[in-house]
Specification:
Elements: H1 2-17, E1 23-29, H2 49-57, E2 59-65, H3 71-80, H4 109-114, E3 119-125, E4 132-133, E5 139-140, H5 145-149, E6 168-172, E7 181-182, E8 185-186, E9 196-197, E10 216-217, H6 226-243, E11 250-255, H7 276-298, E12 305-311, H8 317-327, E13 351-354, E14 363-370, H9 373-382, H10 398-401, E15 413-416, E16 422-426, E17 429-432, E18 465-468, H11 484-500
Parallel strand pairs: 1-11, 1-12, 2-14, 3-6, 3-11, 7-10
Antiparallel strand pairs: 2-13, 4-5, 6-8, 9-10, 12-13, 15-16, 16-17, 17-18
Helix pairs in contact: 6-7
């Protein structure tokens, strides 16, 4: 075993002493399911050629997970390596909800990389909370339209990306085309404030267009071209970085709107697929990935850039229902559940990484990983030393990326929903410390109800759920009563991780 690990250790030592550190491009899609990507789902009805090519040039993980089944807690956990349930915050932010979930003093991924000599930039959706101020200088920490109406746009926002480790930011406070404030933040201010309530009359009307809240919109905010705006910002950043005299490596976080509802594909993508408006939106998402990859190659950056692509959770409820019904496309295939659910479809996500000369092209990994692992992995790559009061739920998956792993990296993996329902995974065993999905109401009938996908409970009266994912990947048979010792062991471990405040080992 020691002999097998020597190549990995030598490689890591090389990075600890190397002056030329890799650029890191992290692309995070929104509400993209495991089955939405062609290289994960042969039955997909939407072409994703650029993601498929990325997988051919790198590694594809088949057991990767978002930290949560919804966006705000996932994004917090990605940026900190710390599971968001530990904050006891339920739900997600909308509009100018806040304050920022990342408290002052907590080390973030961009701060850590900036300390290693990186330039850091983020373009797209923030959604981790921030503080806007009213004309009296009082912070606004409320969701909804009344809070947006109170904003004094002459005052800078506090607690956004610029205050949490990013040198550059352009994007939105919350979900760009859903959450009350339809305006772009540049740095820490909104240069073009909203002036009126959004007029939804001319917007597309289809089963995937029903998620616009009637919020305030800025004159320069086109609800159907948001992802193209974000893309142009990232492309311009890469161009400027290539032209600059700076020798700093960069960390670029491209945080998409696609494919969160409403599915408003840009004009250039409408009708490009045979899978309707959401299929077109998925196609646009894939195009964005392709353009970013082309830019890296155009600027001579591709060979020294680690590219990571993933999603913040599984596919949305109405999206999944309509796509299955109308186009025979299952965005969660082959898993049970969707966004908000603790079952695999809610948090098992695509995860593809490319790093020429380091990651073997066309490789696949079955390692169980979580997006919280980005922080410990980036630390290993760059030689950063993580203190024990940071990234408490982050594991270093660099050996898996390099194909040098010889055993499971994660002994345990935690999962959470927006209601703070928790689950724990160990090998093939997964224990849900609650009844039901932990998110969606599967008793709800109707057009957008999940009752049509409800499965019979095979362990009535059980206080939790136990599944063996190897024998039962569809999570159809609850083994709670059949294996009480496993239930007891996993529940005890979950309680231990809750009490200790960490699930990653204490660092030496």
């Amino acid at each position: 075993m020691i002999i097998r690990l020597l190549p990995t250790l030598c490689f890591l030592c090389g990075f600890l002493n190397a002056a030329d550190k890799p650029n890191i491009l992290f692309i995070l899609a929104d509400d993209l399911g495991y089955g939405d990507v062609g290289c994960y789902n042969p039955a997909s009805k939407v072409p994703t050629p650029h993601l498929d090519q990325l997988a051919k040039e790198g590694i594809r993980f088949t057991d990767a997970h978002s930290p949560s089944t919804v966006c705000t807690p996932t994004r917090y956990s990605v940026l900190t390596g710390h599971m968001a349930f530990r904050l006891n915050y339920r739900g997600v932010f909308t509009g100018v909800g806040g304050p920022c979930l990342i408290t002052k003093g907590r080390l973030t991924l961009p701060e850590m990389l900036r300390g290693q000599g990186y330039e850091t930039a983020m373009f797209g959706k923030w959604h981790v909370g921030l503080s806007a101020f009213d004309k009296q200088g009082k912070p606004i920490h409320q969701n909804g339209l009344p809070a947006v109406r109170r904003i004094d746009y002459t005052k800078p926002f506090v607690g956004g990306p610029i205050d949490r480790g990013f040198d550059y930011f352009f994007g939105t406070a919350s979900c760009p085309t859903t959450d009350w404030l339809y305006a772009y933040i540049d740095g820490n201010k909104i240069p073009v404030p909203p002036t009126r309530i959004v007029d939804r009359t001319p917007l597309p009307k289809h089963p995937y267009s029903r998620d616009n809240r009637p919020g305030m919109i800025a004159p320069d905010f086109d609800l159907e071209e948001v992802d193209m705006v974000f893309l142009q910002k990232s492309l311009k950043y890469l161009e400027n970085h290539a032209k600059s005299a700076s020798k700093k490596p960069f960390f670029l976080f491209h945080s998409m709107q696609a494919v969160h509802l409403p599915s408003f594909a840009g004009d250039a993508f409408k009708g490009k697929t045979k899978a309707g408006p959401h299929g077109d939106f998925l196609f646009e998402m894939d195009y964005v990935v392709g353009e970013l990859m082309k830019a890296l190659k155009r600027h001579g950056m591709a060979k020294n850039t680690l590219v990571i692509f993933s999603s913040d959770n599984g596919p949305e409820v109405p999206t999944s229902i309509a796509m299955r019904r109308d186009h025979k496309h299952n965005g969660a295939r082959p898993w049970r559940g969707v966004k908000r659910d603790q079952w695999e479809g809610g948090h098992r996500v695509p995860f593809i990484a490319r790093w020429p000369g380091k990651i073997k092209a066309g490789s696949t990994s079955k390692q169980t990983i979580c997006l919280t692992d980005l922080m410990a992995t980036a630390a290993a790559i760059t030689g950063a030393k993580l203190p024990n009061n940071s990234a408490e739920d982050s594991y270093n998956i660099l050996p898996a990326l390099l194909g040098q792993d010889t055993k499971p990296i994660r002994q345990y993996t935690l999962h959470q929903t927006m209601s703070l329902a928790l689950a724990i995974r160990k090998g093939d065993w997964k224990y849900l410390d609650h009844k039901g999905s932990g998110g969606n109401n599967y008793a709800r009938p109707g057009e957008w109800g999940m009752k049509q996908y409800a499965l019979p409970e095979k362990a009535p009266g059980a206080l939790g759920q136990l599944y063996n994912l190897k024998a039962d990947p569809g999570e159809t048979t609850n083994l709670y009563f059949k294996h009480p010792k496993i239930v007891k062991t996993l529940k005890a471990k979950l309680e231990e991780f809750k009490k200790s405040g960490r699930s990653a080992p204490v660092r030496q």
